[in-house]
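Escalation from tier 1.

The customer reports that the assembly of two entities below gives different structure tokens on two consecutive runs. Tier 1 could not reproduce it. I'm attaching the input and our single run for tier 2 to review.
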Amino acid sequence: MKIEGKKQIWKDYQKEIAGDHYFYVRSCVRQNFFPGSEKTFLRILQNELHKDIYENAAHTTCSGIGYHSDIVPIATTMTMIARQFALMTEAGLENLATSCITSFGLYNEILETWHHFPEVEEKTREHLWNATKREFKKPANVAHASDIIYKYREEISEKAKFKLVNKDTGKPLKAVEHIGCHYARMFPDKGVGGAEYPYVLTGMIESWGGEVIDYPERRHCCGFGFRQYLVMANRGFSIACSKKKFESMEPYHPDLILTNCPGCPMFLDRWQYAISEMEGKTYGPNGQGIPVLTYEELAGMLLGYDPWDLGLQVHQVPVEPLLDKIGIPYNSTKKFSGIQGEDLGKPDSPSVLKFYTGQ
Amino acid sequence: MGKLYDQLATDVRFKEGLTACLNCGTCTAICPAAEFYNYQPRQIVDILQTKDDSQIEALLKSDLIWYCGECMSCVTRCPRNNAPGLLIMALRSLSQELGYFVESEKGRQQLAIKRTVGSWILDFGYCLYPSLITPENHPEQGPVWEWEHKNLVKVMERLGANYQKTGPGILRKIPQEDLDEIRKIFEVTAGIERFEKIEAFSKKKAGELGIPFDDGMNNEYIQQIYTTNSGSHTRKHED
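Tier 1 run:
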């Protein structure tokens, strides 16, 4: 009885994740800043896990950044999302795989709103029909892309060529993880581990050989805050939030930051650079930063994919120190080359943050 | 019950976001914006609970409703199932509908977001578009973005994108018929109307303030709302 009781309690923190046949919707932030991560997600799903995942060129933004910066009304966003559902329905699919956490949170928010206010769902269907003559079924399952990588983390581990282990000491590398606010804050039952024990990234780190470091500001927002970053005059809020996290994690000497949300890796990467320029402060050893990775980048690295195919060259905080610790080979001279090896020049080096120019 | 309160109460987020606040302050304790700005979500809910139109009108015209980052940390922690973050969204919507947003420094910024993110949604089908995220407006993006921005087509090709090309894939050119569909969605759901209101109220305010204003991004009004911070918003550290 006691075990059953505990099992029942933990059931609230578990989530059903569809196993195959996904309709993929992309992320605005990731397509702009981490396109290699979306490329790698599909590569892992199709080539390593042999899953069926479909993308329709007609899908668009869900308008989530516009909605959360409050220029887009809720009725508009609901109808934009209804259109994505319609494209999924037309493709004969019912499992949604979202690349973006803002979208993921919104899909859940809107499905929940429709559940409580059926008249709002009806109105949205009417709007969609009037605008596009499309109809939709609601998804049977809504997974964030990280949920799917989490679900297959052991399979990925079996295929991996490297582990999250220091090649010289044999000790697990220390990772801090950052879940992203809209993954489970509003609807804890929609995220692995809920809002209290988010396990989606921790599960990956543990399965892949690393050690998760807890630190006081682990759950603090990265500072995107939508309008708090989009408008230049507000960016003090954004950098202050990230700085609070860096100061809190620094004493634990993390080897990497693993992120869940599209925006968080960008802010945790770029604000390290900005703080180094503004204050001369860096958070890694010897003027280095703390490398910030998406879960696809980490999975791809361990699977032995070329780091430049993953897009690690477009990080402002260089990832080379982490590659070196694990023993992952890379060709420095190709870091900033084009696809045919063409010379595209190189970024300037920052004033303070140690940089690897690819020579 | 006041008229403004009634208007707020028609917003589904207001219905979901306000049950009964006991003013415990848990939302304020967890709120990243409260730590940075002169802001307390508890105070927002407190004012709403008065249902007093004059107080609500002052709120709709103030900077206070524009500090929240919509992280929704308050939703997780409220012991009474209130959602201050959703109430903020309802307040911001009404503030724009009534044109009150132009009465505050932070509220006026909505025009800059409409002319960037809003335009990009309708023009390209994305909330962000790389060629328009300029290093000048985003110095924090650093030299790697500057390099990427200068070599955008080649770098996107290297990273596996389908930038500006047809078919599926990363940053593909979204077909015109699909852009037409989303514009139509914005029309039938009053999204276009919202954009037009942001423009019209902003233009009127620029006139009142005597600040040059036009349809582009380089006029004085846009530059001012995008870059100016009066410095009166943040909490001051005590020595």
